[in-house]
Amino acid sequence: MKIIGIGNAIIDVLGRVDDIFLKKNQLIKGTMKLINQNELNKILSMIKIEKKIAGGSVANSMVGLSHLQNSASFIGKINDDDLGESYEQDLKNQKVIFCYKKKKETIPTGTCIVLITPDNERTMCTFLGASATISKNDIDENIIKNSDISILEGYLWDSNDSKLAFKKIIENSKKKVMSLSDKFCVERHKTDFFDLVKNHIDIVFANEQEILSLLNTKNLGKVIDFCKTLKKLVVITRSDKGSMTVFGNTVEECVAKKKLKIVDLTGAGDLFLAGFIDGYSRDKNLKECLNIGTEMASRIIQKIGARL
């Protein structure tokens, strides 16, 4: 196996709402909020479901890599329930190798409600379910050791069990890639994330908000200067301002595609990561990797959901 992804295994449930809905439910547009099962049931009862699909940030990236004819595998914890069966089957249909043997759990398979507003921004309410209980005992270290690249999501840091699984993966990986996941995730774990970025991860993916938050600054120039001192690859996405890499003293930039018919921003960062890592795994230069990532992100935001 060439590339292994480890993250929350969550069924995405997509629905359209207006800004008033977000305010009434005290949701901040464009962010991800962790919810309990009662909150999940309440919101589900208030929306019209447009689509259900196997999701989770890194899982979306693995499907993107598979779409690009790359070898992609995924580890994520699900319950042996109907949603878990749907999740596993969906990944298999997408030709992603699912490296977790489901069993009966006391907690159902995780669910993420993706609320799409008229401006096509997405706000996520996530019930982690069984995915949050993934532990180091669920990780086969031989699978990690036999993979060339391991991709982890910052969301794994939201539970103690998955945090230990994260650490086990770092200890056994050849090349470690981390997505910072979400600005509020960075805020929750800023000290730990800073240590991971500085001392343990080889390739860091972050959007501009996330990296600014991590470094407690509003100045992108200061971020770039810091990244130059790391001696590792940092990839920063900037929405309609494009994207960039910082590696040593070298900065590469890529402009965003123009005149797109944007339908839904769900999965833009996940598919960007997939495109970039696909290029990276095929020894493309960083400019080419940015271009592939940009192409993938541009295609997904013109569709509903995170599947091409």
Provide a compact summary of the structure.
This protein has twelve helices and 14 strands. The protein has helices at residues 19-24, 37-44, 57-67, 82-93, 141-145, 160-172, 183-188, 190-199, 208-214, 220-228, 268-281, 286-300; strands at 3-6, 10-16, 32-34, 49-55, 72-75, 97-98, 110-116, 122-127, 149-153, 176-179, 203-207, 233-237, 243-247, 250-254. Helix 3 (57-67) packs across helix 11 (268-281).
Describe this structure in words.
With 308 residues, the chain is an alpha/beta fold. It has a single domain, classed as UDP-N-acetylmuramoyl-L-alanine:D-glutamate ligase, CATH 3.40.1190.20. The protein contains 12 helices and 14 strands. The strands form 2 sheets. Strands 6-5-1-9-10-11-12-13-14 form a 9-stranded mixed β-sheet, sandwiched between helices. Strands 3-8-7-2-4 form a 5-stranded mixed β-sheet. Helix 3 crosses helix 11 (268-281). The relative contact order is 0.15.
| Beta-strand fraction estimate | 15-25%
End-to-end CA span: 23 Å
Helix content: 25-40%
Strand order of the largest sheet: 6-5-1-9-10-11-12-13-14
How does the major sheet shape up? Answer: 9 strands, mixed
CATH classification, class level: Alpha Beta
Tell me the series of helices and strands, N- to C-terminal.
EEHEHEHEHEEEHEHEHHEHHEEEHH
Structural class: alpha/beta
Number of domains: 1
Shape: globular
Mean pLDDT: 94
User: CATH H level: which superfamily?
Assistant: Ribokinase
Q: DSSP helix count?
A: 12
Q: What's the gyration radius in Å? A: 18 Å
